[in-house]
Amino acid sequence: MESHQKIITYTDGGSRGNPGEAAIGVFIADEKGHLIKEYGERLGIKTNNEAEYMAVISALKKIKALYGKEKTKKMEVEMRMDSELVMKQLTGVYKIETEHIVPLFVAVWNLKLDFAKVSFSHVPREKNKDADRLVNEALDNEPRRLF
């Protein structure tokens, strides 16, 4: 049995207008790049930075739901994103100066406790195409309404 598993996750959040209609995209892969899960989701009206944070939160929650708390305690997750601002805030390089972002930062910080290691890295937009595609697909599709 593997004692240490690594997951590579690409996240993106986008807002058409800022704030505006927003969505997230999450692409979860194993260490070799094989897809485990991908999804996009509309968020309603949010800022771009809120959407970026919500993508990270959603990804960590999804990984925990897929594997369970016992397995995630032994798991390393590398979060790759094209938002340099959010990455630098999550790694402590930049301070958070926008008050409404603080609860999202705290949510990420608390979720990190469920994993052996969570790291955050910036990737150029062209290396984050899958997550970006999922954001745009979510924004382009009309939201479903339940009657």
UniProtKB/TrEMBL annotation:
GO terms for molecular function: nucleic acid binding; RNA-DNA hybrid ribonuclease activity. Signal peptide: none annotated. SUPFAM superfamilies: Ribonuclease H-like. InterPro entries: RNase_H-like, RNaseH-like_sf, RNaseH_domain, RNaseH_sf. It comes from the Bacteria. CDD domains: RNase_HI_like (cd09279). Coiled coil: none annotated. Pfam families: RVT_3. Residues 3-147 form the RNase H type-1 domain. This is RNase H type-1 domain-containing protein. It comes from Candidatus Giovannonibacteria bacterium RIFCSPLOWO2_01_FULL_45_34.
